[in-house]
Design a protein that fits this description.
Layout: E1 7-14, E2 25-32, E3 37-44, E4 54-58, E5 67-68, H1 74-86, E6 90-92, E7 103-109, E8 112-117, H2 123-154
């Protein structure tokens, strides 16, 4: 059986949010498999293609990406972010702490908490939400992989 990788390097490039003329942004992050955490490390020069060895998340129809973040994912992304924030599994380095999404509670109904984003939410804040959404999706993929490994171990034949 192969050993699970230590983590995943991720780049996210987001555009189209904020005030008119806002430049798209790219953030770098690291997902630790051992700790189950996502650390958003820094903002770098905008990229349309991920560096070698990085997963790539974007909301832009670029040539190559691993995860396309769409408007319809925003509600799930907010929920994923709030859950990760509550469990301390998402961290923003000092250089990017100012990109913490401005999310306001907008009441509760029979479906749970309702949230509202700041009207002028910027590309970097949406990038953080896209990373939270990606992390949530990866958690599901990781658990299916672990379940497959567990089942395979159940059926291993040991010779003596």
């Amino acid at each position: 059986m192969s050993e699970a990788p230590a983590g995943m390097k991720i780049m996210v490039s987001i555009g189209g949010y904020g005030v008119a003329g806002s430049e798209p942004v790219t953030l770098m992050a690291f997902k630790s498999n051992a700790l189950g955490t996502l650390t958003i490390l820094n903002k770098i020069t905008y990229r349309e293609i991920a560096d070698e060895g990085f997963a790539f998340v974007t909301n832009l129809r670029l040539q190559d990406y691993d995860c396309l973040f769409k408007e319809e994912h925003l509600a799930d992304a907010i929920t994923a972010y709030k859950e990760a924030e509550g469990m301390s599994t998402i961290m923003l380095a000092d250089d990017v702490a100012r990109y913490r999404p401005r999310i306001e509670t907008d009441g509760v109904d029979t479906q749970g908490q309702k949230y509202r984003l700041a009207a002028d939410i910027g590309n970097a804040e949406v990038a953080v939400l896209a990373l939270a959404h990606f992390m949530s999706r990866q958690r599901s993929i990781d658990s299916v992989g672990r379940m497959g490994d567990d089942i395979a171990r159940l059926y291993q034949i040991t010779s003596i």
